[in-house]
From TrEMBL:
<dbReference type="GO" id="GO:0005344">
    <property type="term" value="F:oxygen carrier activity"/>
</dbReference>
<comment type="subunit">
    <text>Monomer. Homodimer and homotetramer; disulfide-linked. Mainly monomeric but also detected as part of homodimers and homotetramers. Interacts with 14-3-3 proteins; regulates the phosphorylation of NGB. Could interact (ferrous form) with G-alpha(i) proteins (GTP-bound form).</text>
</comment>
<keyword id="KW-0963">Cytoplasm</keyword>
<dbReference type="GO" id="GO:0005092">
    <property type="term" value="F:GDP-dissociation inhibitor activity"/>
</dbReference>
<keyword id="KW-0560">Oxidoreductase</keyword>
<keyword id="KW-0561">Oxygen transport</keyword>
<keyword id="KW-0408">Iron</keyword>
<dbReference type="InterPro" id="IPR009050">
    <property type="entry name" value="Globin-like_sf"/>
</dbReference>
<dbReference type="InterPro" id="IPR050532">
    <property type="entry name" value="Globin-like_OT"/>
</dbReference>
<feature type="domain" description="Globin">
    <location>
        <begin position="5"/>
        <end position="154"/>
    </location>
</feature>
<dbReference type="GO" id="GO:0005759">
    <property type="term" value="C:mitochondrial matrix"/>
</dbReference>
<keyword id="KW-0479">Metal-binding</keyword>
<protein>
    <recommendedName>
        <fullName>Neuroglobin</fullName>
    </recommendedName>
</protein>
<dbReference type="GO" id="GO:0046872">
    <property type="term" value="F:metal ion binding"/>
</dbReference>
<dbReference type="GO" id="GO:0071456">
    <property type="term" value="P:cellular response to hypoxia"/>
</dbReference>
<dbReference type="GO" id="GO:0019825">
    <property type="term" value="F:oxygen binding"/>
</dbReference>
<comment type="function">
    <text>Monomeric globin with a bis-histidyl six-coordinate heme-iron atom through which it can bind dioxygen, carbon monoxide and nitric oxide. Could help transport oxygen and increase its availability to the metabolically active neuronal tissues, though its low quantity in tissues as well as its high affinity for dioxygen, which may limit its oxygen-releasing ability, argue against it. The ferrous/deoxygenated form exhibits a nitrite reductase activity and it could produce nitric oxide which in turn inhibits cellular respiration in response to hypoxia.</text>
</comment>
Amino acid sequence: METRRLSGPEQELIRESWQKVNSNPLQHGMILFTRLFDLEPDLLPLFQYNCRQFSSPQDCLSSPEFLDHIRKVMLVIDAAVTHVENLSSLEEYLTNLGKKHKAVGVKLSSFSTVGESLLYMLEQCLGSTFNVAMKEAWTQLYGAVVQAMSRGWNGE
């Protein structure tokens, strides 16, 4: 991955903060997706299960299938944190994940809103311990993940 490599202290900030957030991934993932739908409500129609269209974000957020999606997203974040010192080991997986998102109609531009939602969730969960250095470290990590996923849009 071509993004700047995270420093040792940045990696530690990410690991420490994620340890707190990952204690309840479903609850914290709900915060992330609630914020995502607030910021970009046009994403709601992309989530359909068994040909069922959700009438509202709350309808979607309470469906068992979507709760499973939240768990998967949180597992991807967990994998990025686990491999923070060697993100290139996730390159192929993340590129394929990008292809899957492209196939269901997700626009690459929507990932900036997902990033905003991730930072919002971290801030809500960590409170005053979420500082500028932590925000910058997470922004770098998320940027590297999106860069790898974007290769799925570009057919690399």
